[in-house]
Amino acid sequence: MSKRVLISVFEKENIVEFASELVKLGWEIISTGGTYKILKESGLNVIEVDEVTNFKEILNGRVKTLHPFIHGGILYKRNEQSHVETVDNLGISSIDMVVNNLYPFEKVLNNENKTHEDLIENIDIGGPSMIRAAAKNYNDVSIVVDPKDYSEIIERLKENKLDKDFRLYLSCKAFNYTAYYDALISSYFNDLLNIDFPEKLTMTYKKVNDLRYGENPHQNASFYEKVYVKDDEKADFKQLHGKELSYNNLTDMYSAIKIVKEFDEPCVVAVKHNNPCGLAISDNIDDAYDKAYACDSVSIFGGIIALNREVTKYIAEKINSFFVEIVIANKFSKEAIEILTQKKNIRLIEVGNISDFKLPKTTIKEVLNGIVVQDYDNILFKEDLKVVTKRKPTEEELKNLIFGFKACKTVCSNGIVIVKNNATIGIGQGEVRRSWAVEEGLERAKENLKDAVLASDAFFFEDTVELLKENGIKAVIQPGGSIKDENVIKLCDEYGIAMVFTSTRHFRH
């Protein structure tokens, strides 16, 4: 008795060739709708599904394969006598292979002209049911969802090697496929209803490519792209020059882009290991570059530079004088590209809408036995600023304090930034004691501390105030909220230091 294959595919690439090979190997074909038509027109002998079910498809094709003569033929256990007797008594013939891919919900979702009705009608029902049935019964049935597997399946059939282990592989692939499909639909409905924290969280990503390695050479890694991204959250991202991006490149790039997106003014940041080593704003991008570079002209070597304006000839010539992994900007001038592409390995990344696209509403981090999901830290101050000392900051000091507190959002906690003229001149970050972070920042600023101010991502104690006095810092900004706030304020008053409370903390772990 010949084996039967049910073929019902939306994407019909190579399906005629595959079906023809199956026929040559003695397989009988059942098919539906458009697939039936294309196979029949190609000259193949094909049985239409309603010939098997004795029931015409209804509801404009919404129901056609949901029938016991289909699912019974797929799901019965060939080695269980009661199952065999049941299908024999009912006149159900076996279906030994299912070839299926689904309505293009993903493609429609990413179409800018889509409507809700379009999306609803592209939610496949019968397809996932057949796929799951065949995948469940992989012991007896082969499920094929990927055209890339067609040629190997034919070769295995010819060599009698379409064995249980390979069917298990196909089953695994099928369940990944339907899970991905359903997760995409649930993501759309969550977004439709503005549900950021659903009771059951599903995430949908598609593999783009394998990376050379992960954080370290002994770690494997791949890059997966988020499939469903709302139009206003899509980064217009393309690589203009340079070798392929690595795991660390991708994470550093995201950090750098998030930093420059904090600022409307022309902004430049240099990033190393996901942390800024120089950050500045100005009324022109060339000056912002010079100030960011001056913060730490050593650490910037081998780092990433991001700008929220066009890369000018001036900046390109500066960057070309030392080694940089990546330059990211919304645009590169013609002269800048000519200069920077002289270096073979430097990556040039253009994000045309770098200032316009929105960052995600939530962020995700792996923890023991799971993940934690939180709102993105997208505010600077949740309350009005409060000057809590007798001395008030000058207008220029206040401007630098606000810039500094925004810069603090971008550094690892405990985080301190020393700021002057809308640029970081010293950064202390990732320390377990805040006073150590202050010491780091002050040491890096060194002899440039006159008229500088300090920003802290969380409250501090008297030991930090003593360091401020010793180094001539006259204005600080911090969240406040410590049981020692009163002591800190009193000491600042004694030393003539202006202190501003934000009532908003910005830890970054």
From TrEMBL:
One MF annotation (Gene Ontology) recorded for this entry: IMP cyclohydrolase activity
Q: Which SUPFAM superfamilies match?
A: Cytidine deaminase-like, Methylglyoxal synthase-like
Task: Tell me which GO cellular component terms the UniProt record holds.
Answer: cytosol
Homology family: Belongs to the PurH family.
Protein name, entry field = Bifunctional purine biosynthesis protein PurH
Which segments constitute the MGS-like domain? 1-145
- Fetch the InterPro entries from UniProt: AICAR_Tfase_dup_dom_sf, Cytidine_deaminase-like, MGS-like_dom, MGS-like_dom_sf, PurH-like
Listed A to Z, the keywords are: Hydrolase, Multifunctional enzyme, Purine biosynthesis, Transferase
Pathway per its UniProt entry is:
Purine metabolism; IMP biosynthesis via de novo pathway; 5-formamido-1-(5-phospho-D-ribosyl)imidazole-4-carboxamide from 5-amino-1-(5-phospho-D-ribosyl)imidazole-4-carboxamide (10-formyl THF route): step 1/1; Purine metabolism; IMP biosynthesis via de novo pathway; IMP from 5-formamido-1-(5-phospho-D-ribosyl)imidazole-4-carboxamide: step 1/1
- The species this protein belongs to is Parvimonas micra
